[in-house]
Design a protein that fits this description.
The chain is built from 15 helices and eight strands. By secondary structure, it is α/β, with parallel strands linked by helices. A four-stranded parallel beta sheet has the order 2-1-3-4. The chain has a four-stranded parallel beta sheet with strand order 6-5-7-8, sandwiched between helices. Helix 1 (16-27) runs parallel beside helix 4 (87-95).
């Protein structure tokens, strides 16, 4: 996160101790400081020259930065709507790690790691933060538990002076569970999205049905001797984006499903429908819920195949949302 501090903060000795603590996050690279002013000549540096050379470098580097990229300003008083924090509240805010709330920490980690690994240099900052343990993945075990998980984090700030939601840096990423392109998101997603808006938390609901629908078809190479894999690979991008890989058509005929689902799969023949009706559960000794996400680690999962499967810039949008919070 790019941070700008009001120059007057450095000339008030009541702030010096807080500034000493705050600058640890800039020195380690967790956050970046922008300054149009030469902080190295302030009373704070004169009283303690530990950060003098660092502040000189900050002043020089800021010439090559754009003031419009500043994400947080630190002044004497809060003006949260303008992203201005007091020194005390800013310290609490930026010392916290970024939390990515997902449904399942195991499978969603595989999905996100495949993005972070394959999309470079866009994910350089994200990977640096992970290596330094500045990002936490919180998967409470289902979307219905996400609000509770958020509340547990907010509760940590209940004794602070300001409203606790100003201190949490977080993003929520959840499945849409949509069954066809124009399907409405469910009540759970609507509730989570509204709660995130209330608590000023970023939220992204996936365009496709579930994370498994982002697995590139090339990653199914080792399973290609199974009929369902061959039929799945023949589906159009829209069909494969909303097909339930785990349960298929829930072992029902297509004409037993909603009209929109029937329309989506209208070109599927009776034989193909029979192969697809049970999903990947039809493969013996194969646990789709556990084993499908492992395909995000497959050698054929890369930037090109992930982008092709995604079909748009959604993955880049997710990366941008996370980068903005770091």
């Amino acid at each position: 996160m790019i941070v700008e501090l009001d120059l007057s903060l450095f000339n008030n000795d009541l702030n010096f101790q807080k500034l000493n603590h705050l600058f640890v996050f800039f020195e380690t690279g967790k956050h970046i400081i922008y300054s149009n002013d030469d902080i190295s000549q302030t009373q704070w540096i004169l009283s303690n020259n530990h950060y003098q050379s660092f502040c000189e470098m900050v002043y020089k580097d800021s010439v090559y930065m754009n003031k419009k990229d500043v994400q947080l300003k630190i002044e004497h008083e809060n003006d949260i709507s303008s992203k201005i924090y007091s020194l005390e509240d800013a310290y609490i805010y930026i010392q916290n790690n970024l939390i990515i709330f997902v449904e399942n920490a195991t499978s969603d980690r595989l999905f996100l790691n495949s993005i972070f690994k394959n999309f470079m240099p866009e994910c350089e900052k994200i990977n640096f933060a992970f290596r330094n343990r500045w990002i936490e993945l919180n998967g409470p075990g289902g979307k219905n538990e996400i609000k509770k998980a958020i509340n547990n984090e907010l509760r940590k700030f209940r004794t602070e002076k300001s409203c606790n939601d100003i201190y949490l840096r977080a993003i929520v990423i959840i499945d849409s569970d949509k069954k066809f392109p124009d399907d409405d998101i469910g009540n759970s997603q609507i509730e989570i999205e509204a709660y995130c808006l209330e608590k000023k938390i970023s939220c992204h609901i996936l365009n496709k049905r579930e994370i498994e629908n982002y697995i590139p078809v090339e990653a199914f190479q080792e399973l290609s001797n199974h009929k369902i894999v061959e039929e799945y690979k023949k589906l159009t991008n829209d069909q494969s984006s909303f097909y339930d890989l785990e349960k298929g058509f829930k072992n029902k005929n297509l004409n037993a499903h909603d009209e929109q689902i029937q329309v989506l799969f209208k070109n599927i023949g009776t034989k193909e429908e029979g192969i697809l009706r049970r999903g990947f559960e039809s493969i013996g000794d194969f646990n789709p819920k556990q084993q499908l996400p492992l395909l995000f680690n497959h050698k054929n999962t890369n930037r090109e195949t992930l982008t092709n499967k995604c079909g748009n810039n959604e993955l880049l949008d997710i990366i941008a949302m996370i980068n903005k919070l770091l």
